[in-house]
Amino acid sequence: SQVWIRHWENVIPIFDYPMEIRRVIYTTNAIESLNRSLRKVIKTKAVFPSEDAVFRLMYLAMNNIAKKWNRPIKNW
């Protein structure tokens, strides 16, 4: 509770959003799933020749991951 009190000015703006938007913000399962999928792709490569190669791999991986998304957000 002390953390909330110290950072109240950063917490309060979230309550300005409608409940539907807050529900999406609170839902972290989709974000965690995306992160897990990206880590899985990155782990398979030992070394990247450049930073650009990492970005390209992540872009392609995100396109493939996004194709599997088929569940809409409830009450959106």
What does this protein structure show overall?
The protein is an all-alpha fold. It is 64% helix and 0% strand. It is built from 5 helices and no strands. α4 packs across α5. The longest helix is centred in the last third of the chain and has 17 residues, at 51-67. The two termini are 31 Å apart.
Helix content: 55-70%
Number of extended strands:
0
How do the SSEs run, as a string of H and E?
HHHHH
Give the helix tally.
5
Q: Which value, in Å, is the CA radius of gyration?
A: 18 Å
What order do the helices and strands come in, and which of them pair?
Elements: H1 2-6, H2 8-11, H3 19-26, H4 29-43, H5 51-67
Helix pairs in contact: 4-5
In short:
This protein has about 80 residues and is mainly alpha-helical. Helix content is about 65%, strand content about 0%. The chain is built from 5 helices and no strands.
What distinguishing features does this structure have?
76 residues, mainly alpha
